[in-house]
Design brief:
Layout: E1 21-22, H1 29-38, H2 43-58, E2 80-81, H3 95-103, H4 106-112, E3 116-121, E4 124-130, H5 132-136, E5 140-143, H6 144-150, H7 152-158, H8 169-177, E6 182-186, E7 191-201, E8 208-209, E9 212-217, E10 222-227, E11 230-231, E12 235-238, E13 241-244, E14 253-255, E15 261-281, E16 288-291, E17 295-299, H9 320-325, E18 329-332, E19 341-345, H10 360-372, E20 373-378, E21 383-391, H11 395-409, E22 414-418, E23 423-429, H12 431-441, H13 452-455, H14 459-473, E24 474-480, E25 486-494, H15 497-509, E26 515-519, E27 522-526, E28 529-533, E29 536-542, E30 551-552, E31 556-578, E32 583-586, E33 589-592, E34 603-605, E35 608-613, E36 618-625, E37 631-641, E38 646-653, E39 658-661, E40 664-667, E41 673-682, E42 687-696, E43 702-711, E44 716-725, E45 732-742, E46 748-757, E47 762-772, H16 775-783, H17 788-799, H18 801-804, H19 809-823
Parallel strand pairs: 3-7, 6-9, 7-10, 8-34, 9-35, 34-37, 35-37, 36-38, 37-39, 37-40, 38-41, 39-42, 40-42, 41-43, 42-44, 43-45, 44-46, 45-47
Antiparallel strand pairs: 1-2, 3-4, 5-6, 11-31, 12-13, 14-15, 15-16, 15-31, 17-18, 17-19, 19-31, 20-21, 21-23, 22-23, 24-25, 25-29, 26-29, 27-28, 30-31, 32-33
Helix pairs in contact: 1-2, 2-8, 6-7, 10-11, 10-12, 10-14, 14-15, 16-17, 17-19
Length: 828
């Protein structure tokens, strides 16, 4: 049996609280009884809760491990009921809950991947879906409340038998106020080949979540249980130009909907499977692709309509004055329609960080170079060569470029006329000019892009560059309207997609909205010159008037959506958490980030997991925990393993403020085997106190504990373990390995191993190491051009590899990314 349970707390956002019932703060016997009454539980469960409450009151707080003195049990809401009852249809859920689980992909996961989904929101499991295959083979997969209601005899037989209320104060608290969780029963010999998955989430501030998980895997059974926004390539506007979203790092600065640059706090990556939406505005190449829940800054057309009747197949007309006055709002992309409006914020000079100022002549020459220039190193002549190619008819441009070169480097350029090609070629040998142009524009036409220094020049400098570029590569069409007025259409082209978006940014800075489209390559003729074109990116705009469909305010352009398309996608998606403004621009369009609920007060997660592994069964329970950093994560996990059974705990702790968790195996049958593979990562203000317990109560049992911990930025990790070998457990084998890595001098790691061996015929191995990150390895990686944070991430991922190789590939990738993000200071 292979059973993967993955708790995944990556997703970050908060929706307004809207509950059917929310208890008062604090806990007493009356509230415990009230919870049981609301749930319509049998009398034995009510009494179990009340007895557990008495134990909770009497039990002292742990005086070892992490500091828990800040927990105020009187300032916690112990029970929240978000809906009247569990439903079997996704569409029957309240809107707030659907929004939450839409955002983490539960509907898509259910439709396309999962055999069953159980989703817990605050205290209650609000949605469950079990496919017919599970019913056919006799597997029971329910929320814990339904398990109690529908299978009371099984629940009563096992509930609280492995983790009784008297085990510890937090087990007693959970037993008194437990709500939700999962109940899974796999009959003898049954193989569940499809995965089961559960999602848990805290939305309310000062809330305690107390789910209860009970798994019974009968003899020889098998089950896979998992507990658990932009696509790569989308272009984000940063203070260093345009970057693909997957290249954004924490501490980068991105442009926000408020018209300024703000720091990226976190980069979030997750696997996604389901519908994605492609929005195409008036400018076709500004289309963006998003997961369905991602918020876009927009205005709904229906809010700003005129009173005129629609004409033929036209969209209803809008009132321009009302449109300009309407305040944009962030709207999930799935709620937008063709004809709605997206917002392109304007980029202004006061948002820029200008560290260096180019001369007017340099900016103009850069513009001409973008259009007609190239540069290379001539090996035979040992010379740096800069060349400009024009049509021989472009006399004004030819003279201008020669004059600019002379002013910048005080050197006359060579002019060569090639009659058969109608070409005028300007050439100059100059390393100074080569460096200026290549460092700020690159060399080849399809690679050209502007440097950060150029993009951060003031408006009047960028205007010099743009009009020089237009003279070299642009054309102007003038049309006379029936009214006698003229319309001016400006167009220019480039083989570089990045440069096209950068020119659009520059025009935005100049107060001009430009559209982008793609023209496929092929044979062409320009001013009597035959050329073979690469794919061309066409930039076009009208002046002095804007496109008739574009409106603008002082701060942004309002651009209509021309098309919205849906398709299925499976793969990684990306999101950013941005300081203050919580937004960023993708291809110029303002998007909100989807961020974790961050509170000034703490939340409490106190769960209990009980697993019964019968003869010859195998269970694997994998946790990838990334709780928000305001959560006390205090969990009791225990498994009873019978003859020849196998229990594997894979426990990865990245998030939370404090974690205290020690997965346990009670090996009661001959040949039973238990494993705990553990990773703990603690950054600033975090204490991960984690470990394992192995109790050998039968002969020929074996256990393996491998613990890896990483501490950085003042964080603290602790390994706390117990191995007990009973007098009758002869021929048993024990292996314990605890390795800690300290990233800096401020961080801390502790090891508290306890071994109680009562039989001499036992093989015991114990290893423990503490190391600092290898300076020589770090130096080697940095000497190869790898940034320090990335190099540290590589070394940390190598350090934890003995554990990650035991995890399914998709979770290894995710865990490595989480570690890398933490090394960049980006998660939490």
């Amino acid at each position: 049996m292979s059973d993967d349970l993955v708790f995944d707390y990556r997703y970050g956002f908060k929706v307004p609280e809207n509950y059917v019932f929310k208890s008062r703060k604090g806990l007493d016997k009356k509230l415990v009884a009230e919870i049981s009454y609301i749930k319509k539980e049998p009398k034995w469960m009510t009494q179990f809760r009340l007895n557990a409450y008495d134990v909770f009151v009497k039990k002292q707080m742990p005086n070892w491990g992490a500091d828990l003195t800040a927990i105020n049990f009187d300032d916690i809401y112990y029970y929240i009921k978000p809906t009247d009852n569990t439903v079997s249809s996704w569409e029957d859920l309240p809107k707030e809950i659907k929004e939450t689980y839409d955002r983490i992909g539960v509907p898509e996961a259910e439709k396309n991947f999962l055999a069953g989904v159980s989703a817990q929101y605050e205290s209650e499991v609000v949605y469950k879906s079990i496919q017919k295959e599970l019913d056919k083979i006799g597997v029971v997969f329910l929320d814990m409340d339904s398990g109690l209601r529908e299978h009371p005899e099984i629940v009563r037989k096992y509930f609280g038998k492995l983790v009784p209320p008297a085990d510890n104060k937090f087990a007693a608290l959970n037993s008194a106020v437990w709500s939700g969780g999962s109940f899974l029963y796999v009959p003898k010999g049954v193989k569940v080949t499809l995965p089961l998955q559960a999602y848990f989430r805290i939305n309310a501030e000062r809330f305690g979540q107390f789910e209860r998980t009970l798994i019974i895997a009968e003899e020889g059974s098998y089950v896979h249980y998992i507990e658990g926004c932009l696509l790569a390539g989308e272009k984000i506007i940063t203070d260093q130009g345009i970057k693909n979203i997957e290249a954004i790092k924490p501490k980068d600065f991105v442009f926000t909907h408020q018209g300024r640059y703000e720091k990226v706090k976190a980069v979030m990556i997750r696997k996604y499977q389901g519908e994605i939406y492609k929005i195409t505005p008036l400018s076709a190449l500004n289309s963006i692709t998003l997961t369905k829940e991602h918020p876009v800054l927009a205005i709904k057309r229906e809010k700003v309509l005129t009173k005129r009747k629609p004409r033929n197949s036209w969209l209803p007309e809008v009132n321009t004055k009302r449109l300009i006055q309407e305040k944009p709002e962030f709207i999930p992309v799935s709620e937008l329609k063709k004809g709605d409006f997206v917002i392109f914020p304007k980029i202004k000079d006061d948002s820029k960080k200008i560290n260096f100022e180019f001369s007017d002549e340099e900016m103009e020459l850069i513009g001409f170079y973008l259009a007609e220039g190239s540069a290379y190193y001539h090996k035979q002549l040992n010379q740096y060569v800069v060349t400009f190619s024009f049509s021989s008819k472009e006399k004004e441009n030819i003279k201008k470029v020669i004059d600019l070169i002379e002013k910048i480097i005080n050197k006359k350029a060579n002019l060569q006329i090639i009659k058969e090609k109608n070409e005028a070629r300007i050439q100059v040998y100059s390393k100074t000019l080569y460096d200026l142009l290549v460092e700020n524009c690159y060399r080849h036409s399809d690679e050209k892009k502007l440097s950060e220094l150029v993009l951060n020049q003031k408006k009047e400098k960028l205007e010099k560059l743009f009009w020089a570029y237009f003279k070299g590569d642009g054309n102007l069409s003038i049309k006379k309207n029936s009214s006698g007025s003229k319309s001016y259409l400006y167009r220019l082209s480039t083989a570089s997609s990045i440069l096209a978006y950068q020119i659009q940014m520059i025009l935005n800075n100049l107060g001009i909205f430009a559209s982008l489209r793609l023209r496929k390559g092929g044979e062409d003729k320009i001013l009597d010159r035959n050329i073979k074109r690469k794919d061309q990116y066409i930039i076009s705009f009208t002046k002095p008037k804007k496109w008739s469909e574009i409106r603008e305010t002082e701060d942004y352009f309002i651009v209509p959506i021309k098309k919205i398309e849906k398709e299925f996608y499976q793969g990684e998606v990306f999101n950013l958490e941005v300081k203050n403004d919580n937004s960023y621009l993708a291809k110029g369009i303002a998007l909100h980030n989807c961020t974790a609920p961050i509170y000034t007060t703490s939340s409490l997660h106190s769960a209990v997991v009980e697993i019964f592994v019968k003869k010859g069964a195998r269970v694997r329970y994998t946790t990838v925990q990334n709780w928000s950093h305001n959560v006390y994560n205090l969990v009791t996990k225990r498994a009873k393993v019978e003859e020849e059974g196998v229990m594997e705990w894979i426990d990865c702790n990245i998030g939370s403020y404090v974690t205290m968790k020690y997965p346990s195996c009670v090996l009661t049958g001959r040949g039973a085997r238990g494993e705990v593979l553990s990773i703990a990562y603690a950054a600033k203000n975090q204490h991960q106190d984690a470990g394992a317990k192995m109790l050998h109560l039968a002969p020929e049992t074996s256990s393996r504990i491998i613990s890896k911990s990483i501490s950085r930025d003042g964080g603290r990790t602790s390994y706390r373990g117990l191995v007990y070998v009973a007098p009758n457990a002869k021929n048993s084998k024990v292996y314990v390995s605890c390795d800690a890595m300290l990233i800096d001098e401020r961080s801390r790691s502790d090891t508290y191993p306890t071994m109680k061996i009562k039989n001499r015929q036992v093989e015991v191995q114990h290893e423990a190491t503490v190391e600092k990150i290898g300076e020589e390895k770090l130096f080697y990686l940095q000497s190869r051009g790898i940034k320090k944070a990335e190099a540290e991430g590589l070394l940390v991922n190598g350090f934890i590899e003995p554990v990650t190789k035991e995890i399914p590939l998709e979770y290894t990738v995710e865990l490595n990314r989480l570690i890398n993000l933490e090394m960049e200071g980006s998660v939490g």
